[in-house]
């Protein structure tokens, strides 16, 4: 038996020869080993078509022999040797092609041609029988061509020297490629499919799965682009992909966040599969880049979505050197807060309670510490956040403005590792502990503050006995049970305690846990079962000089069960559907005397309870390469339940003590009032080019919870109230339209998006309202209409020594409370600016890298001053002086602007170090701008004086040491 490794390099000179002469010349050059002038290079096996030409005149003149044999799990090599013994034929092949191939076949006087077809049917091998020389040549993937295409030598001729050349446009040309380039690639050329002479096509379907070579996990959102074309696809949540490629040679570019950029060469001989085993990529730690898939911002069909990785906050100079993804979010268009140090975020003109904030699927009611100055999330355990401010996915509901879907990291399953920081106010630590190698892990994170020294060092005697502290801890368990099942469990707790005066201690805490079971039903369907519980509460301990000591508390608790399924029906339809159920329990507040001498009477407000449910289904429809549509519908249901006592009031009259009509008592779990209805989620994307698209969306939603606060901005002692007989559910409607463009190979991203939002039954409060510990709080509440509209501009530079982004938002947020009764009417029933209406908002985030270890960063913010109500005069009544105020929010405080600078220094990059370090030296409010947080008025000797309070009115330097091991 002979083995040949075919690696011929043939060079020929095309002249004015006929096609037949050129073929003969090519044949002679191979047989005689003649080298002509340097023009065309052809690869190995395909040149075997010469065997067809040799003896072409008598190829079919001989009868083929038959073979006999019973082969039971016999190596292919032994089968071929046996056939050689039975016939006069010899086989020619490369030994590696048949290594490990086992054959189980039986032949009884079988023609050798059909026998070989049976033997090779489940392999990548074809064969060619050359009868005149009794040779059988094996070929991997390829087939022997009996003619070359007409354009092979660069001549578009149909007739030459009276020889008619028949056109065969349905047969693709042979595949040729240059072997000298293979050493430049990390991977060998992949050959997919097996050529079938009876089914030659111009394109074939390539499918497969992208897999992390280290963890074995599927890689989602891997962008697969065919170089030299606009053709691109993205892997789904299970890592699967499908891509139609031209027959022959193709070069693929593979890109994903956290994965090493890779190029793959693929030769398509037929339909087939290719799994992409990808290596993890090292991320530049000193980049300020909103990293995403190369075309994701252009290609996805939903509007108004943002994605922030926790690493992005690393180089942004924030107050006291703290990393804070929620502060990074405020630098994006359409997201702001009422002021520096204000708790909560306002998204597209919505109130802070209109945002659904999730931590690993569970609601976190107050994700901030110390009046919003710090986030209540450990930056080293937080992976990132997906923000939906326009088209909200169909699985989310219960809020009318936005969703913040915060995710924690999965632990390292290979080795023990950790990360932490030490700053002037806080210290953070996160540990990743493998429990079972390559299978399960535990993440433990903790952080605490030691801010008391700052308050005590201020030149203010009133603050000398003040204290402020907080801590939070998180625990996450992750277990990849097998390829089809994965379990994640998260537990979280945070607590704040502060005393700005000597007689009151305030405290508030968050507690949550969630368990999630991800199950892969089959190649097309995945499901997730989620159980979670959240609790938020606050308390005030008052210890004064008089006999009025008391303890006050409030809490809200919710438990949810959710089941969702995602099914890829085909290339056109992907379904998301499921259901959720939630139970609420609210302690509206209680006050008790602290000590036997206290004169405070005990007061307990009746508990509230309710259930909320939803079913949902959505279809992501890919109509063609340019147009995709996301259609969804969600039916939301809410029921307020007893045991409770509710008042009814005279219809058409204001709610007050004089209009009470009846008092109704409801027994335990008796239905008090139901709200709900269908919610539409519609969005579409049209792709003009691979890097330019237009998107539009329309959606509506219900909200059944409300915050009660008559402060100018949200505070940690605001209470949540369930909808009931007298407080209706809020409704929101939003339409948006946006244009998205990438430049310079996706180095730059540009987006312009406009929106219009309408709101119903939004809450506000009567002047001087008493909200807390009020058994009939509906008498203090007004419900009216709201509207918000704006245009958002965002320009990002994602790579290079200089990177960052510029965002600008023009927006308005207006409310209207109208009634025929003056006590329920504000500003004569006209629309007026909300407390957080700030038409102009500019943010600039930049980072410049000098070297791999040194970079500087800057953060600039400008905002229109927020609205305020000013006194416009005084009057005297019954020998007393009174102040007359303007219409609500008629004036504005001074505009806000601030510049922060930071210097980032990385430790050396030696591989074998105990820990890698990163130092941030920053100055917050470099310009020393005395930005007012609020303006208030006092009367001094009959004169009204305006005073302003500021949070940070001087530059605040800080240095933070970060380490990772």
From TrEMBL:
It comes from the Bacteria. Residues 480-925 form the TonB-dependent receptor-like beta-barrel domain. Residues 322-398 form the TonB-dependent receptor plug domain. Transmembrane segments: none annotated. The keyword Transferase does not apply. PROSITE patterns: TONB_DEPENDENT_REC_3 (PS52016). The keyword DNA repair does not apply. This is TonB-dependent Receptor Plug Domain. It comes from Maribacter aquivivus.
